[in-house]
Amino acid sequence: MSGVLLESIADSNLPKADIRLAFFDIDGTLLGKDGGYTAATADAVRRLGASGVYTAIASGRPHYAAEFVAREFAMTAPGVVNTGATIFDFQNQSLCYNAELDADVAMQLWQSVHKSGVYYEAYAGADYFIDPDAGFSASALNIAATHAKHMRVGPKLRRFDEIIGVEPVTKFLVAVDSDEMPEFLAQLQLQFPNLIFATAGIAEQPSWRFANIISASATKRNAFNWFLQRYNLEACNVIAFGDAQSDVEFLQMAGIGIAMGNALESVKASADYVTKPVWEDGVAYALQRLLSARN
Which CATH code for domain 103-214? Predict the structure, then answer.
């Protein structure tokens, strides 16, 4: 059963929750198919922050690819990035928390994906990398170019055996065209059951699937609880927005979880409410409705 459509609810029946903290996914939630955002969405988030509600990013992106969103949306709290593996304070340019992959496990993961021919990246420190010896297919190179465009940051070329065990690796990203390799990510997850696989997609290419692969200690629940403790809040004080499977934990932990109209049906089913799609300013619509109900 899906979350309730906000458009189907009368103003008098909307929740009058005491919202103090709002989490926003980036791709497919704040940013649309082209990787851009509308003035209506940005203004709505800025107004929310200016009203005294803490506003924060919750994204699979690394901090350096989320920073422009934090700045242009005037986010007022640190961001949850790398799918929960990192909490980054954009205002002070500092790490609040970072969970790294075990070096031996990261090496095994690299060896598995390297043999497969799928597209993959490793994230370490303030950069992300692709292996010059990977021999990516034309399809994988297309994913690489599109991903870099949306990230607004390009990868660096570096052999992974010069990174793993030398620098702390926070995340692997593996991407496939599910029309070509429908079972690959599921099979990879079976090989590494003790890692967290957070899957997502992009609206521009519906058949593509991305898996952010992080340490088992890098749970979204840990990140969520970090915010509750920092700001002395309860879950009922939190609202969360998202569109991907990787957003489900925050949608379920928050007092109010809102799935975008462009979300997968499984994501909508995990949310309390479903707003309009990102291309119809779903975040702005939901905030306008819910903040009006709060007053």
Answer: 3.30.1240.10
